[in-house]
Amino acid sequence: MPRRNRQRRDARTLGASTGWAQAESADDGDWLVRTVPGSQATKVYRCPGCDHEIRPGVPHVVAWPADETGSVADRRHWHRACWQARRRRRPTRMR
Predict the structure, then answer these.
(1) pTM of the predicted model, to two decimals?
(2) Is the distance from CB of 75 to CB of 64 less than 8 angstroms?
(3) Is residue 95 part of a domain?
(4) Which residue intervals make up region (Disordered) (predicted)?
(5) Distance, CA of 86 to CA of 9 (rounded, Å)
(6) Is residue 61 part of a domain?
(7) Which one-letter DSSP state was computed for residue 92?
(8) Which of 1, 34, 75, 85 is spaced 20 to 30 A from 42 at the CA atom?
(9) Helix, strand, or coil here: 72?
């Protein structure tokens, strides 16, 4: 009898629509975070952590609140280092 593929634990907890994101909890709340490899980064974004541009081809992360009220408009693209350092510094003013 062939084996069945089992869902990974994190995919079940995040739900079917967000199975490609990872859940993170921190002092600033619960977040869904997705890593974007450089090969898939095709647009210019502005990082809320440093207020610098994330150029095409630069790997980064996309984060949004994990609550059910979060929408596409709540997604933010961060440099990896800025996302990891967000607890040590406040986001800068957005342009």
Answers:
(1) 0.69
(2) yes
(3) no
(4) 1-21
(5) 27
(6) yes
(7) P
(8) 85
(9) helix
